[in-house]
Design a protein that fits this description.
- The complex is a heterodimer.
- Chain A is an all-beta fold.
- Chain A contains no helices and eleven strands.
- In chain B, the strands form two sheets. In chain B, strands 1, 3, 4, 8, 9 and 10 form a six-stranded mixed β-sheet that branches. In chain B, strands 2-7-6-5 form a four-stranded antiparallel β-sheet, with no helix packed on it.
- The radius of gyration of chain B is 13 Å and the shape is globular.
- The chains are: A mainly beta, B mainly beta.
């Protein structure tokens, strides 16, 4: 149980284009989903927290107009990187949890984004 | 604040030995702690968690110890195997529904 999927697993795009990444909880309802970014040999940096049906809460320094997050259902959240630039190239990972604050976060397999 | 490591420390162990990975957390108000394992190119995988009302918790081949006095967390892996080679992250949760990740430690298991 507690499986989280991401799609696509990797994507290459040109500068200036937008890319959408999907995160799905496959066998549970995720009241909260999180989006992280990870650069090589570094830790996970939380970008934003999204609750189903409400606006995402972004961490300090994360541009909400650039990283659009939609959590339209209890099993799906999407991250859209708008007007992508090479510096947006990174490993994007989502996680999902249900219920209380101390419930376990389960992570997706990640999406490798390369912007040319 | 958040921890970001530019250079991952590495722990090298022989296959069959016990491994101990340490983590210092930052927020004394944190009350929930988790260890994750991340293999190259994959998302973090839950290993074990512990709440602040406990000092020790055991799983299969893993034990987590929590010392709240010095804000220290450790992960012990018994009889380390090549498949345990990965980067290990501790994470703390003190509110607002989110986790703060440590810098990570790379575990290298040698035959």
């Amino acid at each position: 149980g507690a499986v989280v999927s991401q799609h696509p697993s990797w994507v290459i795009c040109k500068s200036g284009t937008s890319v959408k990444i999907e995160c799905r909880s496959l066998d549970f309802q995720a009241t909260t989903m999180f989006w992280y970014r990870q650069f090589p040999k570094q830790s996970l940096m939380l970008m934003a927290t999204s609750n189903e049906g409400s606006k995402a809460t972004y961490e300090q320094g994360v541009e909400k107009d650039k990283f659009l997050i939609n959590h339209a259902s209890l099993t799906l959240s999407t991250l859209t990187v708008t007007s992508a630039h090479p510096e947006d190239s990174s490993f994007y990972i989502c996680s999902a949890k249900s219920g209380s604050r101390t419930d376990t976060q389960y992570f997706g397999p990640g999406t490798r984004l390369t912007v040319l | 604040g958040e921890s970001v490591g530019l250079h991952l420390p590495t722990l090298s162990v022989q296959e069959g030995d016990n491994s101990i990975i340490n983590c210092a957390y930052s927020n004394s108000a944190s009350d929930y702690f988790i260890w994750y394992k991340q293999e190259s190119g994959k998302g973090p995988q839950f290993i074990i968690d512990i709440r602040s009302n406990m000092d020790k918790r055991q799983g299969q081949r893993v034990t987590v110890l929590l010392n709240k006095t010095v804000k220290h967390l450790s992960l012990q892996i018994a009889a380390t195997q090549p498949g345990d080679s990965a980067v290990y992250f501790c994470a703390e949760s003190g509110g607002y529904n989110k986790l703060i990740f440590g810098a990570g430690t790379r575990l290298a298991v040698h035959p």
